[in-house]
Amino acid sequence: MSGDGTKAQRLLFLCTGNYYRSRFAEAWFNHLAKHHGLSWHAGSRALGLDENPTLAGPMAESARAKLQSLGVEKIAARLPIQVVESELANASLVIAIKQAEHRHRLAAKHPGWEDRVRYWHVHDVDRATPTVALAELETAVCELIDELTSSPMPPESAQA
Q1: Which of 60, 24, 29 is nearest to 42 (CA)?
Q2: Which pLDDT tens digit goes with each residue over 56-89?
Q3: What is the pLDDT of residues 3-25, one digit of tens each?
Q4: In Å, how far are 26, 93, 108, 117 from 54, measured between CA atoms?
Q5: 0.70 exceeded by the pTM?
Q6: Residue 95: φ, ψ to 5°
Q7: Euclidean distance between CA atoms 47 and 149, whole angstroms
Q8: 72, 36 Cβ separation under 8 angstroms
Q9: Pick from 122, 84, 89: which is nearest to 10 by CA?
Q10: First and final C-alpha spacing in the chain
Q11: pLDDT tens digits, one per residue of 34-61
């Protein structure tokens, strides 16, 4: 529930490992949504955790440090989690962090969902430094917050 008693809409961020990009987007979005009084709550999940389950803890230190520099005080301390179908179905909006990396994983693991999510184009550490990628995510989340404050539901929702 949101502060006004209405049920919060769910946003789900997806990336490969749920360790770096999607975790940053989740925490930054929730921080901004609360600040703006939006009736939205974000979560995040992995699309490829089952392909490489040996990540070094709950969240990349670069993501944690950037969030702290932005004034985010509450950062969930949990291990990465692989997405399941019900989480996709229960989200009002699903955003995959990089289309080239995540569309094929969605198609293979959750057929039909690859055309029902919104895609961003933020590289992982193999193609961009954390400084660059996290700045891109910071901007993309801010733009999403602006979109949600001007309309109650984005046009590209996961609800078909």
Answers
A1: 29
A2: 688 999 999 999 999 998 888 889 999 999 999 9
A3: 455 688 999 999 999 999 999 99
A4: 21, 28, 22, 27
A5: yes
A6: -125, 120
A7: 29
A8: no
A9: 89
A10: 23
A11: 999 999 999 999 999 888 766 668 899 9
Query: What is the length of the chain?
Result: 160
What is the token pair recorded at 72? 């985010």
28: tokens are: 């930054």
Decide: 41 and 77 in contact? Cβ < 8 Å: no
Which phi and psi angles does 91 have, rounded to 5°? -90, 140
The phi, psi pair for 45, rounded to 5°, reads: -145, 170
What's the rounded Cα separation, in Å, for the pair 63 and 21? 7
Neighbours of 54 (CB within 10 A): 6
CB 76 within 8 A of CB 42: no
DSSP codes joined into one string, 78-126: ----B--HHHHHT-SEEEESBHHHHHHHHHHHSTTGGGTSEE-B---TT
Report the C-alpha gap between 142 and 145 in whole angstroms: 5
d(CA 113, CA 94): 9
The residues facing 95 across adjacent strands are: 13, 118
